[in-house]
């Protein structure tokens, strides 16, 4: 079952619980869950925070922006 929206909720809860300790990896996974849940605007914001350590987050940001433009 594809429960991307539910997965995104749990990643967001983890990020909220970690606070300032939340790392780029948490945001990367949040971005992917949001992207596949078709919430491109929020996914783009999550990938933006992941780009500090994960260069392929730029690729995912591009996909999000493409989807928002079309």
Q: What is the radius of gyration?
A: 11 Å
Please mark out the parts with pLDDT under 50 across 5 or more consecutive residues, or reply none. Answer: none
Number of strands: 0
Strand percentage:
under 5%
Task: Explain what this protein looks like in three dimensions.
With 70 residues, the chain is mainly alpha-helical. It has helices at 4-18, 24-36, 40-50, 57-69. Helix 1 (4-18) runs antiparallel to helix 2, helix 2 runs antiparallel to helix 3 and helix 3 runs antiparallel to helix 4 (57-69). The mean pLDDT is 96.
What would you say about this model in short?
The chain has 70 residues and is mostly helical. Helices cover 74% and strands 0% of the residues. α2 (24-36) packs antiparallel against α3 (40-50).
């Amino acid at each position: 079952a594809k429960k991307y929206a539910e997965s995104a909720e749990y990643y967001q809860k983890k990020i909220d619980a970690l606070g300032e300790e939340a790392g780029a990896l948490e945001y990367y996974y949040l971005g992917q869950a949001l992207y596949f849940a078709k919430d491109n605007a929020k996914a783009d914001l999550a990938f933006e925070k992941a780009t500090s350590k994960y260069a392929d987050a730029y690729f995912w940001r591009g996909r999000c922006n493409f989807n928002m433009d079309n």
